[in-house]
Every structure is written in C-alpha cells, then in structure tokens.
Amino acid sequence: MIVDANRIPHGATLSADLCIAGAGAAGIALALALMDSGLDVVLLESGADRPDERTQQLYQGGVADERLHTSPDRYRVRRFGGSTTLWGGRCMPFDAIDFEPRDYIAHSGWPISLADLLPHYPEANRLCEAGDFAYTAQDAFSRPIRPMIGGYQGEAFSTDTLERFSCPTDFARRYRRRLENGPVRVLHNANLCALDGGGAGTHAGAGRQVGPATVRTLAGTAFTVRARAYVLAAGGLETARLLLASPGASGRGLGNAHDLVGRYYMCHIAGTIGTADLSGASSVWHGYEVADDGVYCRRRLALRPQAQRRLQAGNFVARLHHPRIPDAGHGVGILSLLYLARPFIPYEYGKRLYGDAPGGAGAWLAHLRNVAADAPGTARFLWHWLRRRTLAERKFPSIVVHPRNRRYSLDFHAEQEPNPDSRVTLGEEVDALGMRRLRVDWRYTRRDVLTVQAALAELAGELRAAGVGSFEYDPETVEAEMTRYGAYGGHHIGTARMGTDPRSSVVDPDCRVHEAGNLYVAGSAVFPTSSQANPTLTIVALALRLAAHLRAEYGARPAGAAPAASAPDTPPITPLQEPQA
Amino acid sequence: MKTRVLVLGADGYVGRRVAAALAASDWAEPIAAGRRAGKGGAPGRITLDATDRWAVRNALAEADAAVNCVAGPAPVMVAGARALREAQDARPGGPLRLVHFSSMAVYGSAEGPVDEGHLLNGDLGPYAAAKASAEQLLTGREEVATLRPGCIYGPGSPQWSVRIARLLRAGRIGDLGVAGDGCSNLVYIDDVVAAVLAALRAGAAGGRAYNLAMDGAPSWNDYFAAYARALGAVPLRRIGRRRLMLETSLLAPALKIAGIAGRRIGMADLPPPIPPSLARLWSQDIRLLSQRARDELGLSWTPLETGLRETALAAAMAAGRGPGQPGKGG
C-alpha cells in the first residue's frame, strides 16, 4: 500500500520488522524482493509521485570546486522512484577484475566476488527491463551481428562485450501497482531525519542496535518508526549524509568511529577526446542492435583485464562518438538541431552535450545553416526520433551519427581510484528539516589520469597495428579533457565502503554497518571500487542479495502471524490512490 | 466392458481432445456430442443440443459417465448446465458421474493466491457470471467433479495459443510492461485432458472443485516473450500504454464489427481484436493454487518449455514452415 505520511498522526510510532529509507532503484528492488517474505516492511520515501521543488531542495548542498562537481541537487531526484526517474538506462554488470585487489589501484578489492553477485544479476536485469542477462555479442545474439570495426581483433581491447539499455525504466511508474497492492507500507513525503544510536545490542552478529527512526514531513508531521532492522537506500550521497547526521556510539556519526563515512567518494572519469579515423576498416558499426528480447544493445571498446594489469590501469571502456556538438564545423544537421534544442534539454543531459561553449548569434546561424543544408537527413532523424524515442516506451537510447568519412571522436568512461581525500561531509547550513547540508569535495588521483592516458595510447597503437585506421589525440590534453565537465554526474560511489575490517570499511560483506547490528546500506555507497560500469544494475543486484540476507537473518513469520514488534501503537492509515495521468 | 462417456461440447477445442483421449484409452469409449450437424457419421458421434434437457436425458441414458465441455455464449452455458442437472435428476438409474468444465473466470476480479475455497465472484462480465451460474447449478452434488482451468494453451488452442501467436507475429503484443504483469495461469491441454480422465476414474467426486494451472505459471509478459521466441516472432516489441489503449478502445470495436460482417460474407481470417476484458486479464494478478489437483488427481504439470515447443511445432506445421521461422508480419 502507498500512504501519504502527512496522514499519519503527529507523534505516532509505527512498528515494523524492517524500515527502508529511500524508494529508488535499491529501495524498490529490496521492497519487491521482500513482498512475499512475511516480513512487515515500511519503505520511507521523501518525495511522492510528482516532482516537488521544496522536496528537491532538500538535496541542495555545497561543493569544494564547482568545476569538478555539480551541485548535489543535480543528477539525483528526490521523489518516488528516485533517480530512476532521470536515468539513461545503460546497464552492464561489473567485471570479475573489479572485485579483485590490485596492487596498482590503491584501496582496491571487495570482500565479495563476482560469483556472489551472479545469482542476482539476472533478476536485476529483469527489474531494470534490460532483457536477458547476456552481455557478450555471442551470448545475446543467436545470429551474427555487425562487428564494431571490421578487421579489428584487439589484444588489449575487446569489442565483444555489450551494454544493454533499460527502457529506461522509472521504478516508481513500473512497480507502483505491485507496491500499491502488496503488503509493504510505502510512505510518501516521509523524510528520515535521524536514527537513534540505541543501547548495547542483543542481536546475533553483535554491534549496537539503532532505532527508532525519526521521520518528518515538510508539512510538519513528525513520527517515529520502530523496526527490528533499518536499511539506508537513499543513494551514495544521501546515505553518507544520513549516517553522519546521526551521532552513533562514537558521536561522530553512525558507522563513523574510524572516520570513514563519506570518504573514498568516487564517480567515474569520463570525457570525449581525439579523432578516430577508421577509413581503413572494412566496416564500422557503432550503433545499436536489437536483441530477440527487444532490448537495444551496443558494442564498445573494453580494455581487457590482462591489459589493465599490464598497463597498471583501472577499468576502461570507450565508444565511437559523434563530433563535439557546439562546433558547427561538423556540418551534421542533426547535431546542429540538437544544439538549437539546447533550451529544452534537461541540465543533466545537456552538460556533456554542450559543455561551457558560448552560444552567440554566430554559432546559432552556423548551426541553422547546417540544419538547412542537411534537411533530408534531419527530417529522417526527426521522424525516427519521434517514433523510436518520443512515442516509444522502450526508447532508442541516444543519437548515433554515421559520418561518411568514418571519423569519430572517442567517448571514454573509466574507473576512478578510491581516494580517502575525496569525500563528502556535513556543512554548516541546514535544510528545511533542520538537517545539515552536504558538502562535496570530489577529487581524482594521478592514477586516474594514468588510466586514461595508458588506455588511449594502447588503443591508438592497436588501431594502427591492425591497419584499420588511426586514433589521433593530444596526450597533453588528457587530464583537461577528463575533467572538462568534472566528475561524471549521477554515479555516487564508495561513501560507505564494504570490507571485512571496521578500521578500513563501513559495512561488512552483508552490507551491515560494522558498528550497528541492525543497520544496513543498500546502494552504490557500499561499492569499494567503481568499475567502468554504470552502477544501477549492480545496485539492484546488491539490493536483491541483501534481501536474501534479510530473509535469512530476520526470518519469515508464518502467514497471518503478527509482526514481532507488532503494533497496537500503529495508527490506521489510508492508502493513496494512483494519480491521474 | 468399456465405460461409455458422454462428452458434451465435443466439437470444441477441449471436447475434441477429451473425446480423442477417451477413444485412445483401454477403459473408455466416448460418445461425442456436438451441436453442429454434419459430423454425425463419425463413429460414436451424435448431434445434440446441450440446452435441450430431453435430448441430454436421452443421451445420458446411453452413458456411464459424462463430461460437460459446453462453451459458447453465456445463456447457452447456463441453459446447458440447467438441462444437464435436470437430466441427471430425472435419470432412472440415478445421476451419472460428471466432470464439469468451469473456469478461473468464476473468481472474477480476485487477485493474489486463490484456492478452490475462494468466493465465486463472477464479477467480470457475462462470461464470468455465466460460468459462475453454471457451476452453482452443478456443484455441491456428490457425483460432480468441477474443473476450473486457467488459460489452456497447446497445439491449436484458439484462445491462448493461436490468437496469441497471431498477435505476436503482427507485433501487436509483446512486452506489455505493467499491463502484462498479471499471472497467466497457463495449463497445457494435455494436463487438462489428464485431469478429466483422472476425475472420471477417481472414487467418489464428492462435489469437489479443482483449479488447473501449472506451478509457477509465468506472467503474461514472460509467456509472450517465451512464445515469441518459440515462434521466431522476434525481436519482441515493447507495447506502451497508449498503444494498448488504442487497441482496446478503437481497434477492438472495429475488428469486432468487421469480424461479424466478415463472417457473413465468408471472410473468416480477420485479425483478432484485443477487447478491454483481455487487456484487463493480462494485468490481473490472480494466481490459481492447484495443489488439490496435484494431490487428489495425481497430476503433474507439463513444463512451459515443453508445452511451447509442441505448440510452436504444431503452428509451424499448420503454416507450412519450420518452427522458429518468422511468419507473416513477424
């Protein structure tokens, strides 16, 4: 059922087995996976069905360097569905090497392996509506598909791995009905503001017990949720904020006895650079293929694990990309059209399309000329875009330009090295609920620059050696290009990292906060390293793994039995109706 | 001596299969009763109006047991059940053992796990109401075993295989998103026939009802995806809410009218409509619990993969192409 938290009596106490904070990819996946568990679950969501400016403002905060990181209220959405209401839908699993400790990547290594997540990835793929869990061209297609670069068989790079695209699925819209009809109590407009530290714990697995949770609405209603266990599923930034906002046993924040919460903050290193001239290749295809399950798939250039080790580089992928949009010299009508559509493109997508290029009248005229000169191509594109993107529920993922001269720019996406000095902390300002706002100090390391430099140099060498073309770029500009737009937006990783040692990690391999026996974290905050992969699929897979753990740990009651912390104090609440579209 | 089993509605999909299975058995012989004339020459086949209690009574007099597979318009189903009850009551030697085909439709708009003790809502239109009424006329009687199948699929199943295949090949259904999240409650035709035979041979029926649906039946989305692959009707299409609404509110009435008109002028092969009731079923999360049929009738369910393979093979042979090859519009 879905309930407006403003209808809960002020001062009430709700009882539950499990209280989850955050109804985004992780929280909704967790709630769906526990619906038939017999556990009494409360899912707190700060927002509701529609965007709300006041709620979104709760995400505002400061950044140490605006050139390196956008304001914390960008690239994440505080509403039912969380940032799945905004995401682009790119899915891929982590690679086996991502979980390994690598002596050339500081603080690398997970306490779990890919094998621990593999049982959960297929269901995660289903929830993300990304089709089969098949991420190589051979696995995903029973028929041969076009090679990315005809005649190229790289030793250092593979073009056989795929990225698959979700619709992109808005988890709230997609799973609202299931939640509405299921036993989980989803509370809209419910902001988790603090978790009491509690006394010494009695729960097996040790640690102090936390709770109850203090919940407030922007309209002024306050109540508590008393649960046997709590899960923070509020995203990589907000989870750190919530932990730091509750004093915990140490007084420095929950889970923060060793000053680790908020540190090791990673995004991804991304940029567009150089010119790949593939005129020597027998064919080039950098567009999408549709698998039998109807999902758009795309090859990319992936740095193989052995090459990563040889180069001492982090994980790295690259895609053939269109020329820079603001430069009207590309002469491509659809790119110029995209430039002219700039005022209508959401900030989160526009930033990397347009950058900080000035938009003077001269530029507009030049782009208008391109559109006019390429009118048939532009019209074809618009028709395709209308049918396959605007009106389609499974959306064509992105603009793909096929230049006749086979000259492309290179779009890369790389792992970022964990760095304790890259961190988020609590600032002095407070939000409308009285909670201290976040301050983000994102940093990158020398290793991050070396990763991109080494991978690009390797790619240039391989393309040349294969005789399929060349990749020209200025090695001196790598650092500038990879930081041109700052940290890759929306991927907030590592702020409550997983490990076995409480002195170097915040949560254990079960995602339980070391120092709190009944507090868990779901989401990318627990990732010790960032991989090359976009995080959502792995966030969902980890949430499903956590659901299995919680079932085993907190057990299912016989059907019809009352919850353990059952609720004479739980007031009756009226479910919300689905909003009219 | 073999048991003579009167099969009412023997021209229908299930009735034909039941009659064939009885004929192939070493313990029974069917008396296949159909409404349409023209097949009367077949051995053991009689023409009979199942709503005519005198005709039914006469037919029962020649039989040792009966199976009621009568389908059709709602009034026919109810009238048939009434005629059957009256004929049973009037039978000189007492009522015969009877297997009555009801449907999961009797549960109407129920959602979640549903066992045989669930209220018979019958609240989703005339078909569901008629099924519930027919069942109420016949159940509770010691000699009657009632079967409530979910959606019967298999080679030649008009509703849940042939129609679905046409819609998949035409790209009119596929991945329906939230509109296809309902449980399909599929049951393979051979399992349904096995249930009939087991119910006929079991001891006292005791007026029991049995849900028939495979364990772990897929969602409609999963069924469509698996069937599309078996048919070669890929890539699967994502059908959005707007598209489905167009189907149910605009295209369905037009196709319905065209179908009626088409039959009059001899055009029988028009595209199938997707009426709102069908779209509603695809999103209804009702899950039949069939434990009783497993335990008491000794049934085991054909795996979906096996059922689909057989179904797709039959469809391919009917269309004159190999399985997994795309059909028209595929």
Break the fold down into its secondary structure elements and pairings.
The complex is a heterodimer of chains A (581) and B (330).
Chain A: E1 2-4, E2 13-21, H1 25-33, E3 41-44, H2 53-57, E4 61-63, E5 90-91, H3 114-117, H4 121-127, H5 137-140, E6 157-158, E7 162-165, H6 171-181, E8 185-188, E9 191-195, E10 213-216, E11 222-232, H7 236-245, E12 269-277, E13 289-290, E14 296-299, E15 301-303, H8 305-311, E16 316-321, H9 333-340, H10 347-354, H11 361-373, H12 375-390, E17 407-414, E18 423-430, E19 436-441, H13 446-466, E20 470-472, H14 478-482, E21 519-521, H15 536-554
Parallel strand pairs in A: 1-8, 2-3, 2-11, 3-8, 4-19, 11-21
Antiparallel strand pairs in A: 5-7, 6-15, 7-14, 9-10, 10-11, 12-17, 12-20, 13-14, 15-16, 16-17, 18-19
Chain B: E1 3-8, H1 13-24, E2 28-34, E3 45-47, H2 53-61, E4 65-68, H3 74-90, E5 97-101, E6 112-114, H4 126-138, E7 144-149, E8 151-153, H5 158-169, E9 186-188, H6 189-201, E10 209-212, H7 220-231, H8 241-264, H9 276-283, E11 286-288, H10 291-297, H11 304-319
Parallel strand pairs in B: 1-2, 1-4, 2-3, 4-5, 5-7, 6-11, 7-10, 8-9
Helix pairs in contact in B: 1-6, 2-3, 3-4, 5-7, 7-11
